[in-house]
Queue: 4 jobs
Job 1
Amino acid sequence: MRHRVAGRQLSRTSEHRLAMRRNLVASLFEHETVSTTLEKAKEVRGFAEKLITLSKKGTLPARRRAIAMLNNRAIYAEEDGKMVKKGTVVGKLFSEIGPRYLDRAGGYTRIIKLPKCRLGDGGQLVLLQLVEQAKE
């Protein structure tokens, strides 16, 4: 029986699923859009929305919970041919992404299906994006 067994296995062990979820959400917060498969995007969307809701509080305990759930990966950018540290994923989440959604009750992400399939296994490719992206 499968009572109270939620979530997708995605042909991975539990540790691999946890690492994939953390890395995909960290990339989503860093770049604000990620191309992935439909199943992975549906699995990750709830985790990303919980973290954004947590970041809207902006308190120190909320930041510590986000670091524990996500890990605090550094963000690097290239300047003059050198890689320069621009901050961390949790720092961007709490300073930029969280305040952007203060007046929004939920639904911070969107999934847009792409017309092409993944080479190899034919998986449906999608774009996982943050709604109301920052204007560059």
Job 2
Amino acid sequence: MLKEIVAGVVLGLIAGLLWLGYNVFPFVFALGLLFFLYKTFESRGGIKQFAPLNVHDSKAGTGIGFSDIGGQNSAKRELLEALDFIREPEKINLMGIRPLKGILLVGPPGTGKTLLAKAAASHTNSAFISAAGSEFIEMYAGVGAQRVRQIFEQAKSGARKKTKKSAIIFIDEIDILGASRGRGSTSHLEHEQTLNQLLVEMDGLSLDGKICILLIGATNRPDLLDDALLRPGRFDRIVQVELPDFEGRLQILKLHTRNKPLAEDVQLRKVAADTFGFSGAHLESLANEAAIAALREKSKFIHKKHFCESLDKVIMGEKLDRRPGKDECRRIAIHEIGHALISEHFRPGSVSTVTIIPRGKAMGYIRQTPAEDSYIYTKDYLEGQIAVLLGGAISEEELLGNRSTGAANDFQQAVELAKKIIKSGMSSLGIVSLKDLPGDTLHRGLQEILEGQEKKVRDIIKKYKGLVKEAAGCLVETERIGGKYLRSLLGTEKKDEFKKEAI
């Protein structure tokens, strides 16, 4: 309505000037230029107002409780303790405790940081408002600072509107907004003004006694954050949200399969054991892909084979249409059996599946089952992993007379593991600084480790040449064999029963 009134006044003014005999061209040109600059500035976000963010009612909006989040027991305990400051303010005041202003959730992507923030809002019956760090950064100075002020004001007004006593502001990827000042290209006026405004808003949180506001930030790069943001009195708690352990993965799988029809042959404990290193997002995708595989086959239940298929898909990607020729297929099979044989030699029972079905960038691969979740590694373990990586190329060389480019990535990983041995002071070089080590000395140290494992692997492959040929022939025929079939050839399992079993 206002735009129409202004347009009418301007047109009336121009008509009046024309009637009086004035030259209106300079006036019209100036108005057109101002309108063009206005539209250009507005399209780039210079004067555009910060788009209102959705304020969710914690009971009907977020719909997430701590019981809906699997694993992360340590993070949930620490977060629940911090949320008591919102739920029981009278009790906290009696102890003379200052309310917490900010909680920083730190962890890899997909571990449930956003879900924890939503659950915090439900747990405290708070208004919930969320934004991404990138929404605050613009090319024009002052816009980001304005948006920071608005999100805090919006949290307060949202809480009043919902008649709530508290509000939680969640900023995802807060490292974009709160990156250290004076570091590289991020050191510009707009970024510093935006960060300064956030610091001011956090300092002023305790001044509003009617509505308690808690800021929750999430990042997987805490090393990028400014020290002023991390000091006590701003982000008072730093909660680590790590990848789930075995029990955590099992709990997450149970949550994501509770609405899915599982067949009797599905053992979630076995699936949890096979998914070491998976985040909660990976596990949700795994359960979803298994259901899709079952639907594709028009099966009423999700079977063990569907989880096997989805596990391969989540790790390696979708199956590829291309298929190698007969000779190349046999080479790939010999390569993968070489990996599997060495894996079984160093850690019996470790091979879950061997396949030559192309997925992603891999023409074939083996999947190993970790004996238990491990976070530190011994020299023997690392040397065993190097041997497994070398097994494919040496198997090709011993049975086919030469190697192929298919081992390039294996060699790269083997070198990295050898560097880890040297860096950890477990090599013949003793305790050294890897970055200060002369290049030729480092090369000799790596060569010593790799050559030692290569000799061991070659001796094993020579001993089991017949086994490699038989297993590779079966693999070419079926495209997938289970670890139990491979162990049957070694004499530890019944052969016929497990020939085509995948897991």
Job 3
Amino acid sequence: MRKYGIEIAIGLVPIIIAFLIFIGQNVVPMLMLGVIGFAVVYAARGRGKLTAMTGQKQRTDVKSTPFTFEQIGGQERAKQELVEALDFLVHQDKIAKLGIRPLKGILLAGPPGTGKTLLAKAAAQYTDSIYLAASGSEFVEMYVGVGAGRVRDLFKEARTKANKAKKSSAVIFIDEIEVIGGKRDGGQQREYDQTLNQLLTEMDGIHANESPRILLIAATNRKEMLDSALLRPGRFDRHIGVELPDKKGRLHILNIHANNKPIEDGVDLDRIARESFGFSGAQLESVMNEAAIYAMRESREQIAENHLSMAIDKVMMGEKTDREATKEERERIALHELGHAIMAELVRPGSVSQVALSPRGQALGYVRHNPQQDQYLYTKDFLNGQIMIALGGAAAEEMFYGDRSTGSRGDFEQAMNIVKTLVESGLTDLGIIDASMMTKDVWALTNRTILDELMLQTKGMLESRRDVFTKSLETLLREETLSGDEFRTLFATNSAA
């Protein structure tokens, strides 16, 4: 009906204009106003209050291949919790006998790139549901009421599409939920508050006996910012942590992304999983992709282990740069990186994975560390060791040149962050203390005391290994890159201790 109304209006306009001209009316001002009005409406299309109308254009359906939980690696616990929650949709008769209330919302919380969106897609496939995705930023506008209207339209669209496809359920996925679900400050007139209130109302309107059933899945990496009204039972009933994968999970993810790539026989993906500590699933996918690109650059038909190692460096540090350092700078950089590597070998034997002199990203050189096992709890001794590794570069420069360079800036920032962790964890002489109540002078004194003491220890330990520096320097300058095994051979051969 609306379509025919537009066609009738378009047909009547020329007739009305001809009639006005016939009776002697000046139609030029009216035509000018009409053109201006059309321009304003066209410019505002897709923005402002117009998008809150129920007649707005629906989002386009995207045809994609089915995505299952088996295609997601490194999140076994999260998948298990999510599947259990989804079974409330799949086995509705069974849960009705036990009197279980179906879940209305599931919150996925975790760092970026860990697979929250993929879990939502797999959830829709698992439950044979219509899948609609939106971002929190889509609901934010400067006009009051627009976001609330978009929330209403999203839930209405989910029900409409589910009925049209003859599905019994629909999954709505909202990424960056903290944009519209942030804590309220008491005012009720802000656009953010009205949008959140509408979302709460829509979730309260989800009933167990309605058809189609709506399940809201939201994702955030800042759960602490969310409003308590959104997190309570009856809205987001289940909170699932989607954390960075451990070594077993990283190996699983690497194997998944290696399925469609030609990998050389003998490539040790287990070693790559160890060296990629702290990587998210997205970063691991990028590692496999970059390794394939390196193989293509060398016109190789298969991906070798050195391609994967270079890919880890690129994802972690960035691409190699064309910056050329002078001979003096190269020697200083080499001694700086050897300081880090030797200190790491003294504090954490076997942890050095690579020592590189080539500039990459913002770094002129770097040492890549390979922890023997994933670790999530740290003692005071462990953190002090990490500070000494960070200070090793500056200590080496002082040993051989008598001063430091600006290359230690990032190392000092890392060391001070670890000192902050020590203080906040009650692992310093200050004891258990609220760090937010410490003045700048106390912070400065604490930093200086801890770092000066550890710098003295670092210099003493490196001074006893001076021969390792002098004998390894030539090799590093010539080769530019030393593997962990090559470095440990030089360390063992030239170590006086």
Job 4
Amino acid sequence: MRARTRERVKRSVGIVALALTASLLSLPAAQAVTSSADCGGAVIKKASGTPWVCTFGDDFNGNSLDATKWSPLLTSESAFGQGSACYVNDPSTISVGGGVLSLTAQRVAKPFYCASPSGAFATSYTGATVSTYLKFSQAYGRYEIRAKFPGDNVPGTQSSLWMWPAKPSYQAWPWSGEIDIAEWYSQYADRVIPYLHYGNSGWDSGATNNNCLVSDVSGWHTYAMEWTSSLITITYDGQLCTQSYLWPYLGGPFNQPFMIALSQLIGSGSNAPTAATVLPATTQIDYVRVWS
């Protein structure tokens, strides 16, 4: 993968994040939820030997999205429009059943106008994103998501397991940061990509690794992050993907609570959809677990 192509893809996501972060700046901060934590009985220990303490978990065992933990991210409320798709709350895009959360992006039969605070726009695509905004956020800890991605190998779709500041403290994106635990782009079907976004004079000075190959991304894999005040470590199926030392950035942005977001997106930039794009495309989530 060429670095410039990769940067064009990330830059297009960043433009969307700028608008989204601006809307979050005017909203109240989220509060961490601990009373309903469920990490499946797993006991995971820190390097020191002491166990992590479960603070949030969802195994998606019901028949609907747990509204105490998740909210759909809607274009009509947030102006989020990755890939010029309309992000909606509909059984065709967001569903729970069989122990999994399914997030689906699709091409609709007839173009329609999507309502947005930044102005309605015509589109032929719908997508899906849910987040813990105003329901759970946390700084530092261990985050683990078991998921599978569509696995197609032509441009047009993107799957993201990512985190955004619950209440941006350092101005708009990328100043306030973004943590992409795992992103999959259908044009780069053999790998999953982490990315830490942070700003310097308004420019994204992020850290990433484009070389974390994952065999058969359409199968179940475990994507995990351990985040301390000085280090972020991301692993896929227990294998190290990237480590980023945070000591130059202790003043921010990775010293504040972040919420969790899960997305099945329509691609953009060099990963924009074409006539060959395989749709619908679905990301499935088996569980999300967080410890502190």
